[in-house]
Specification:
Layout: E1 11-16, E2 19-24, H1 35-46, E3 54-59, H2 78-96, E4 102-106, E5 109-111, H3 113-119, E6 123-127, E7 131-133, H4 136-139, H5 147-155, H6 157-166, E8 170-171, H7 172-178, E9 183-185, H8 190-202, H9 206-221, H10 224-239, H11 242-252
Parallel strand pairs: 2-3, 3-4, 4-6, 5-7, 6-9
Antiparallel strand pairs: 1-2, 7-8
Length: 262
């Protein structure tokens, strides 16, 4: 099932069984993030049907996302800037801690706000023409879409400092090495890998996926004693689910495959 694209549709949605493909649709602006686009993105994630188990997020045209639409900064006051950040924070929170895992397929520019968006996603695939940058220092501004928190958690504040101070551009291969991407594919092959991974993720027990998305980040922020207790609670909750019991019994009865290298 797909939606017809209209001129004001800044984000498009296509649903194929358990997988939703969500596409940033401002190719003429290199998919720069306006408040209107952020609002549509949040609305799509909030209204995904229950049949969707995983989402793929990508960008139309030559780029994933070249960052904040800077035209929205020219007339805004400091108070309006804070409110705009709050809109981004809420939208990204709903994506990162939502019901469905999200796989990014990144190509071309993954810059500024585009990298902030990518850092909220759970699995990140970079095609080999993707490049990452944080040019805020050169623009006279600062990260405002959660990147100082989320990107720093991925690669450390020292690397973020370097990227922001110098305008350093990170290639897809280096991005994978330092943690900005999990996979690198040749250009044009990212979506095929995303579909393969999406099918694996969709086959998991929904409660396990929900726990992975919501408990792991919480545990990472907690002292060890708190984290271990949170882990024990989530282990008990998931193990008590009827679907988990069936899956464990299938393994014990040799009706499920063992883990093996690909």
């Amino acid at each position: 099932m797909s939606q017809k694209v209209s001129d004001d549709q800044l984000v498009t949605l296509e649903i194929d069984e358990a997988v939703a493909t969500i596409t940033l649709n401002r190719p003429q602006k290199r998919n720069a993030l306006s408040l209107g686009l952020i609002d549509q993105l949040q609305s799509i994630f909030a209204s995904l049907p229950a049949s969707v188990k995983v989402a793929i997020l990508t960008g139309a045209g030559d780029h994933f996302c070249a960052g904040l639409d800077l035209s929205e900064l020219t007339e805004s006051t400091s108070a309006e800037g804070i409110q705009a950040s709050m809109v981004w924070y809420e939208a990204f929170r709903r994506i990162q801690f939502g019901r469905v895992p999200v796989i990014a397929v990144m190509h071309g520019a993954v810059v500024g706000g585009g990298l902030e968006l990518a850092s909220t996603l759970h699995i990140r695939i970079a095609e080999d023409d993707a490049y990452f940058a944080l040019p805020e220092g050169q623009r006279g501004i600062f990260l405002g879409g959660s990147g100082s928190v989320r990107i720093t958690k991925l690669i450390g504040f020292s690397r973020v400092t370097d990227m922001m101070l110098t305008g350093r551009v990170v290639s897809a291969e280096e991005g994978e090495r330092i943690g900005l991407a999990h996979y690198v594919t040749p250009k044009g092959q990212g979506m095929a890998l995303a579909r393969e991974l999406a099918e694996r993720v969709a086959s998991n027990a929904p409660l396990s996926n929900f726990a992975i998305l919501n408990a792991l980040p919480l545990i990472a922020e907690q002292p060890m004693s708190h984290g271990l207790f949170t882990e024990s609670l989530m282990a008990a909750v998931t193990q008590g689910d009827p679907e988990a019991k069936e899956r464990v019994n299938a393994f014990l009865q040799k009706r499920a495959s063992k883990v093996a290298p690909v």
